[in-house]
Predict the structure of Ig-like domain-containing protein.
Amino acid sequence: MEKVQGSVLLCFLFSFQAGVRGQQVEQSPSALRLQEGTSSTLRCNFSTTMNSVQWLSQNAEGGLISLFFLASGTKQEGRLKATANPKERYSTLHVSTSQLEDSGTYLCAGRHSAPRGPAACLQTAAAPAATICTSGRTHTAAFEQLWVS
């Protein structure tokens, strides 16, 4: 897993959805509480076809860690498995045999195949402490809180 450097600040507990220039992504469920040892799947639905999807998590220090980057198909690392289906416009992240350290904020981000606009930053009233800075190709992101107890 690779730590992502950059200007993304996440300071909230519940779901946040963002769309830049009309592109939307929705992650479900918006918040999830699991009992340790159980499994669950997080899902992102995109309003348009994406060229690739990236799944990230936020560590205790607030930094982002890249979990998966994929265009289509399935990738697995340990107890985590990501799938991307660009034709059906969705991606999933499956957590098997959840552990306490899986608790946290998860992010899925979609990337278009061609630039659709200049770089932009977005802040919303729903999460005023969250700032998303995007390149001309990355337009959508969704966040979800997962608790394991």
